Amino acid sequence: MPSDSHINLDRKQLRRHLRSQRRNLSASTQRQHAHQVCKHLSQQLLFRRAKHIALYLPNDGEISAEPLIQLCWKLKKTVYLPVLHPILHNCLWFIPYTPQSRMRLNSYKIKEPRIENGPMRPAWALDLVCLPLVAFDQNGGRLGMGGGYYDRTFGFKCNEKGLRGPHLIGLAHELQQVDQLPIEEWDVPLAGVATEQHLHLF
After folding, report:
1. Span 4-201: which CATH code?
2. Each residue of 135-157: pLDDT tens digit?
3. What are the angstrom distances between the C-alpha of 164 and each of 131, 133, 191?
4. DSSP labels for 118-152?
5. Taking a C-beta distance cutoff of 8 angstroms, is the pair 128, 199 a contact?
6. What's the rounded Cα separation, in Å, for the pair 123 and 94?
């Protein structure tokens, strides 16, 4: 369970605190957690039914989605990675990702597929999106890195037709759970969070 010390931290302080905690996990712990997350999520019907799945490459201590990527390739599912939108501010494109994909470093020094790797898939046309986070709470609240990329890209899920589009599942270490997050009106809630211990469904 999360520590009571999280309760009085604002978003900036909480982000700094939890980023430090996840970066301090050993490489072997990171690998173990990533494989446990893959195991929990792969048993779910929403994963088994999904054909078009967006994942990510880890950065800054984020739990790795690489075991899930390998499993998706094995199961002949199409994997997409987020790419910084070249025109729309703080939005994402989703480009197919294969072992043969040509990669580049974006402005955050994170690897992303080159746009010429394949046709971009609209966010609403994905079946499942597994996204990184800094913190989550028991109500499906998510605290990201602060750029608002996922919130802007999937903002359509906050309107009256919010059930359309992909399932949004956060991937995290269990230590990233907090009692309650300060949520803003533009924060897009998650359908669930997979950790090394559980799949939390909201």
Report:
1. 3.40.50.10420
2. 999 989 999 988 889 999 998 88
3. 18, 22, 12
4. S----GGG-SEEEEE-SEE-TTS-EE-SSS-HHHH
5. no
6. 7
